[in-house]
Write a structure and sequence with these properties.
The complex is a heterodimer of chains A (127) and B (344). By secondary structure, chain A is mainly beta. Chain A contains one helix and ten strands, in the order H-E-E-E-E-E-E-E-E-E-E. A five-stranded mixed beta sheet of chain A has the order 4-10-9-6-7, with no helix packed on it. Chain A has a four-stranded mixed beta sheet with strand order 3-2-5-8, with no helix packed on it. The chains are: A mainly beta (127), B mainly alpha (344).
């Protein structure tokens, strides 16, 4: 029981680590956001994203929690259900970076201070 | 900021600290320092891998995608549940055999393979939240207050694990196996639920994050259905919607929510799949556990009635030294001496 499950797990984890990679450096220049980094300011009742359009490729969201509660940042697919990427556990006063490779299409951004989803807004990625 | 990141660190570390605390208490009671060393190897290796991978994915050319992170966490959770469950029943059996082994003076009942299995449980318990935690910690490398808060939170979790260890080693054998076993089963049910949550977030398992048509939504608002009677038909939210959403009532980042999550696996927002898996696990495993505990107690009673047990032996020796046919006077002191050397 031990050896096969151990190796299966190790192989599975290794595969994930190799295939589940996203380039950390955003593709600068082509993005409509300055410097390729989109800033998000999360408060108790708002989730302000500095740009609502960007070019496809690697995008970094720098999420700053300006509220009182620990927050989360979500990038949702067009159906507002599937999670494209998320950053959990952003303490009040702290920031966290979320880098994601985005294909052209319609997305939604949202924050979750104290577990409640707020400030859902459209986010467009153009080819 | 400090308090919030402290609570995050506490939450990430508590479950692992509790499990490792129980593992250490167990091998401590058996006086097996070689297995203890293996546990610390498992913990150390897990931390080292998580810290280095976290650094590579934070500062290197490539980060870890959201799906992979959730799949790694979810898969390790499911594996941890399987191994912890196996260990609970194995501990019961080992605790039962304990007395016979002491009497026959057969030391070293923990086989080599079992020792490594315990080390793997320690590895998995620490590792399943480890990568996510170290990614968060490295991300806060330039934010000392948040980083310090999280680290102190993890230390607090370790302190709680240590307190559990101290409390556990004082219990006698029977009580120890019953309490730790029951506690580990409840913790494992919670880990199962959270592992499923991770896999649902990554849309590996169907659920509230799968999108249409799998995710049941309100036709008017597009929100995911919650509870029993919502939506176009009765139980439309089952099994791929939310079972309940108490985030408006309970702050999931608060201290009580964090303790509830680390012990019984309760979170204010749970999917039907999570709740179903949690309940099924408990319904299947708990009756078997109770039956095993009862079997052990009955066997212990039977053993006590046929021959002098460990705690009765001194009294019997004093009152009727030569009257016991099953034990010769030469064997009797040896039986008594063994538990006295290990007063646990």
């Amino acid at each position: 029981m031990k050896t096969p499950s151990r190796w299966t797990a190790a192989a599975g984890a290794a595969t994930l680590l190799l295939t589940g990679c996203v380039a950390n450096q955003p593709a600068g220049g082509s993005s409509t956001a300055a410097g390729g980094v989109i800033t998000v300011t999360a408060k108790a009742d708002s989730c302000a994203v500095s740009a609502n359009t960007t070019a496809s490729g690697k995008v970094t969201f720098r999420v700053t929690n300006a509220g009182e509660a620990t927050t989360e940042f979500y990038l949702l697919a067009a159906d507002r259900l599937r999670i494209v990427a998320e950053k959990e556990d952003i303490a009040p006063g702290a920031f966290a970076d979320l880098t994601v490779a985005l294909a052209p299409g319609q997305y939604f951004t949202a924050c979750k201070p104290g577990g409640t989803k707020i400030g859902e807004a459209e986010f467009t990625v153009i080819g | 900021m400090f308090l919030a990141s402290f609570l995050i660190g506490l939450r990430e570390g508590l479950e692992a600290a509790l499990i490792v605390g129980i593992l250490v208490a167990f091998v401590h009671k058996r006086g097996r320092s070689d297995v203890l060393a293996k546990i610390w190897w498992g913990v150390g290796l897990s931390i080292a891998i998580a810290v280095s991978l976290g650094a590579v994915f934070t500062f290197g050319a490539y980060g870890l995608s959201f799906e992979s992170q959730e799949i790694i966490g979810g898969a390790m959770s499911l594996l941890a549940v399987a191994m912890v469950t196996w260990m609970v029943f194995w501990m019961l059996k080992a605790g039962h055999r304990m007395k016979a082994e002491l009497e026959s003076n057969a030391a070293g009942a923990l086989a080599v393979g079992t020792g490594w299995a315990i080390a793997w449980i320690a590895f998995l318990s620490v590792g399943r939240e480890g990568l996510e935690t170290t990614l968060m910690l490295w991300g806060w490398a330039l934010q000392p207050e948040a980083l310090l808060g999280a680290l102190v939170g993890i230390l607090a979790a370790v302190a709680i694990g240590h307190a559990v260890f101290r409390g556990m080693v004082r219990l006698n054998f029977g009580t120890f196996f019953t309490y730790t076993g029951a506690f580990l089963i409840i913790v494992a049910a919670g880990i199962l639920a959270y592992g499923i949550h991770d896999l649902q977030e990554a849309a590996v398992l169907p659920g509230p994050f799968s999108g249409l048509p799998i995710t049941p939504t309100d036709l008017g608002t597009g929100e995911v259905l919650v509870g029993l009677t919502d939506g176009p038909f009765w139980m439309a939210a089952f099994p791929f919607g939310w079972a309940f959403d108490l985030t408006a009532v309970i702050d999931p980042t608060g201290v009580w929510a964090i303790l509830a999550k680390a012990t019984v696996g309760f979170t204010p927002l749970m999917s039907w799949l999570e709740v179903t898996a949690w309940a099924s696990y408990l319904l299947i495993v708990l009756p078997r556990f109770v039956a095993a505990v009862r079997r052990n107690r009955a066997a212990a009673r039977a053993a006590r009635s046929t021959m002098p047990s460990l705690d009765q032996a001194p009294v019997e020796r004093a009152s009727a030294p030569a009257a016991t046919p099953s034990a010769s006077p030469e064997q009797a002191p040896a039986k008594v001496l063994v538990p006295e050397r290990n007063p646990s």
